[in-house]
Amino acid sequence: MFATAKKLREAGVLGLNERNAEFIMRLNPRRLYPRVDDKVLTKELAIKAGMAVPDLYGVIRNQREVRTFEDIVESRESFVVKPAQGSGGDGILVIAGRSQRKRDSFRLASGVLISTAEIEHHLSNIVGGQYSLSGNPDKALIEYCVRFDPTFAEVSYQGVPDVRIIVYRGYPAMAMVRLPTRASDGKANLHQGAVGAGVDMSTGQTLTGVLDNDVVDEHPDTGALIAGLNIPQWDFILESAARGYEVTELGYLGVDIVIDRDRGPLILEMNARPGLNIQIANRTGLASRVRRIDELHDADASPEERAATARREFPAEHGDVSGQNLALL
After folding, report:
1. Alpha helices in 256-321 (DSSP H)
2. Cα–Cα distance for residue pair 317/78, rounded to 1 Å
3. H/E element, 326
4. How far apart are CA 289 and CA 6, in angstroms?
5. Residue among 170, 305, 298 nearest 243 (CA)
6. φ, ψ of residue 91 in degrees (nearest 5)
7. Are the CB atoms for 14 and 327 separated by under 8 Å?
8. CB distance 245 to 167 below 8 Å
9. In this predicted structure, what is the pLDDT of residue 11?
10. Mean pLDDT throughout 229-248?
11. What is the pLDDT of residue 324?
12. What percent of the chain has pLDDT over 90?
């Protein structure tokens, strides 16, 4: 066990303790956390920086405002409900359309019908703090429902895939595509059962996948091969992720981007504590890339220049990182 852990460290694999002590605590001042923990504020900052985000239809800030839900979505066929300070996809409802038969019901992405009263009850739980990081009262966002790019049609179950990019000191360091599954209820969250597929930073092409810490080649529901997909507008996606550094000022950052079939890449959210399973999906360590960024770091480099550096320095590698041995660090 100790020999394996030593081997992983030598191979540049980043462990949980090192991530917390050397990256999150050192590079992410707590006073900046609201910029990513509050999705309303994140959206406002991104818009101010000229970044594309899903349209915000409305915000419900307290129990009294729950009754305004019907007015907010009156002209909307589809939308997403999410807690402003939630994490890991908890508390998110994806409404795909309205029921043809029941006037007061909507259809979830899974096809299940949900009534207006049930959505309002869910909104009440959100503002009550049921899904917030701290357990304190929260806000509920109602926003545009992304229509995913057809590139991912064969490797996604019902929901919308997203691209997670780890940004270190403003430089994109590693990326993966998170693919919804039946087990994840159509959500692109690994801890709920989604598949993560590594990405070649130089080309934007998908590599092998990870499901519950195991390496996989096929999507568990569709059977389609995960590797070999070319992510649309890859250069723009990397540049947008790099720009997240200026928006948040966080030195260790996860940027989540969705690709809408009509609007292109949109910033979905950002994260001050991105997980480490991205190393399994890419079969290589993050720490070695971080060291390389430290060597190349230029405080005056633009987001476009930092993205270009990532494309040049981090092509696909073929390591041996698994969920079982990653847990040893």
Report:
1. 278-282, 287-296, 303-313
2. 40
3. helix 323-326
4. 18
5. 170
6. 85, 0
7. no
8. yes
9. 59
10. 96
11. 44
12. 65
DSSP assigned state of 13: P
Strand partners, 163: 177, 257
Rounded Cα gap, residues 270 and 51, in angstroms:
13
305 CB neighbour count, 10 Å cutoff: 14
CA distances from 78 to 107, 108, 141, 180, 222 (A): 9, 9, 14, 18, 25
Domains and CATH numbers, the chain: 2-51+148-326 (3.30.470.20), 56-143 (no CATH)
Q: Is the pLDDT confidence value at 30 over 70?
A: yes
Give, in degrees to the nearest 5, the angle at Cα 263 between 262 and 267.
140
Q: At residue 32, does pLDDT exceed 70?
A: yes
DSSP structure string for 21-55: IIIIHHH--GGGTHHHHSHHHHHHHHHHTT---PP
C-alpha–C-alpha distance, residues 79 and 306, integer Å: 34
